[in-house]
From TrEMBL:
GO MF terms, alphabetically ordered: 4 iron, 4 sulfur cluster binding; electron transfer activity; metal ion binding
A GO CC term attached to the entry: membrane
InterPro entries, alphabetized: 4Fe4S_Fe-S-bd, 4Fe4S_Fe_S_CS, Ion_transpt_RnfC/RsxC
Organism: Leptospira langatensis
Keyword field contains Iron-sulfur: yes
Domain of life: Bacteria
Lineage, uppermost ranks: Bacteria, Pseudomonadati, Spirochaetota, Spirochaetia, Leptospirales
4Fe-4S ferredoxin-type domain span: 313-342, 344-372
Secretion signal, residue range per the UniProt entry: none
Gene3D superfamilies the UniProt entry points to: 3.30.70.20
UniProt name for this protein: Oxidoreductase
Keywords: Iron, Iron-sulfur, Metal-binding
């Protein structure tokens, strides 16, 4: 298991399971508008009970407590006031898996594909019945957290899973870059965790063919193995913290932190709010809104994988004119020539662009090439 998370207060996540773990804020979940409620609220719930079902799969209760449904202008929310113990991690115990139980476990324990989070994991598997290629990748999308080293501790579980995987997809070739094959690079570098890029570099597949592959990255496998070999529900996620200072330097915290679904970030904001008044989630490439620490936030493990604290200054970034330095096109891993979108140098190769965001990140004029790319693709539908 992971080393003990840093920064966690006794009242938040402590796996000894006593009443000290009660939080001072209820867990708050935000079902999609078309979600199907699976309980009559208010109701007493236990960790892992199914609360509602939506397109990304079944969402489970992260704690024991009293769950109630509230409606507001922004939609509905489910608030759970914790009244019991946390369920801690259990060791993984390798065993022979049966085909039928794999999909059943995915649904019962609320798993999603964390490589393609819009799909529940069982729906993702079911959509690949005709696949000829299964790719097991050692890299997560952003590599915020190193799940590979966790998987490497459990080779016997991995072998059991490979056996059942082959029986579920007898026609498919499994290419295992976790234990068997060596990926073309030794250490992760961006954008190797993006499924399209990994498949293009290892299998020479064009980006548009990623749908033909069953792709499983290490975070998806980590949560799947927790479910299959320790019966642990998908109710929490290991995340990384970043800090962007006034001078623009981005610092990553040395440790990761485990946060439960719907958990309030109040305890983190109390620690960092005086230095960093704003935050955003995931990466800058995704352009999630910059929010104020003061207003609070509840974590959604299906959508959020990292937290970035910002100084007020950095939240006010604006664009300057292109200085034609060429950094964007020079560093584009697929040679899509994004510079063409803001200058007269050549043509933008939209079919090669996988929206990795490197060009946006490197631009000294802070031009959001990512927005230009999205607009271009929308305006030239089908290219
Ligand atoms: S154009 Fe930009 S976003 Fe697209 S692949 Fe190249 S670097 Fe990535
Ligand atoms: S990196 Fe920015 S400033 Fe440099 S050529 Fe590209 S768009 Fe222009």
């Amino acid at each position: 298991m992971f080393a003990k998370p840093f920064l966690l207060q006794p009242r938040t996540v402590k796996e000894t399971g006593n009443r000290k773990t009660v939080l001072d804020e209820p867990y708050t979940l935000f079902p999609d508008r078309d979600a199907l409620l699976l309980k009559d609220f208010p109701v007493r719930v236990k960790v892992g009970d199914s609360l509602y079902k939506q397109s990304s799969g079944i969402v489970l209760s992260p704690v024991n407590g009293i769950a109630s449904l509230e409606h507001s202008e922004e939609g509905s929310k489910i608030r759970i006031v914790q009244d019991g113990n946390f369920v801690g991690s259990k060791p993984w115990v390798s065993r022979t898996l049966q085909k039928d139980e794999v999909l059943e476990t995915m649904d019962r324990l609320g798993l999603v594909s964390l490589d393609f989070p819009e799909h529940s994991l069982s729906a993702y598997f079911k959509s690949k019945t005709k696949t000829k290629l299964i790719l097991l990748s050692p890299f997560t999308k952003t590599q915020d957290v190193d799940f590979l080293s966790e998987l490497k501790k459990s080779q016997d579980c991995h072998s059991s899973f490979l056996q059942v995987l082959q029986s579920m997809f007898p026609e498919a070739k499994i290419k295992d870059y976790i234990f068997g094959l060596k990926p073309p690079i030794k250490n992760y570098s961006y954008p190797w965790g993006i499924p399209e890029y990994f498949a293009s570099q290892t299998e020479k597949l064009s980006f548009s063919r990623i749908g033909e592959v069953l792709y499983l990255g290490p975070e998806t496998l980590y949560n799947l193995y927790r479910a299959l070999f320790a019966d642990f529900p998908f109710i929490e996620r290991e995340i990384a913290l970043y800090f962007l200072g006034k001078n623009g330097g981005l610092r990553k915290s040395g440790s990761t932190i485990r946060i439960r679904n719907g958990q309030s970030l109040k305890f983190l904001f109390e620690d960092f709010g005086s230095q960093y008044s704003n935050f955003t989630v995931n990466s800058f490439y995704e352009k999630n809104p910059v929010r104020e620490v003061q207003k609070g936030f509840y974590w959604d493990i299906r959508q959020h994988y990292s937290l970035i604290f910002l100084t007020h200054y950095e939240s006010q970034r604006r664009e300057f004119p292109c200085v034609e330095c060429g950094e964007c096109s020079l560093n584009c891993p697929t040679k899509a020539n994004p510079m063409a979108l803001v200058s007269s140098f050549g043509n933008f190769q939209a079919g090669l662009c996988m929206e990795c965001g490197i060009c946006t990140f490197l631009c000294p004029s802070t031009i959001s090439l990512r927005d230009r790319i999205r607009n271009w693709k929308e305006a030239n539908h089908g290219f």
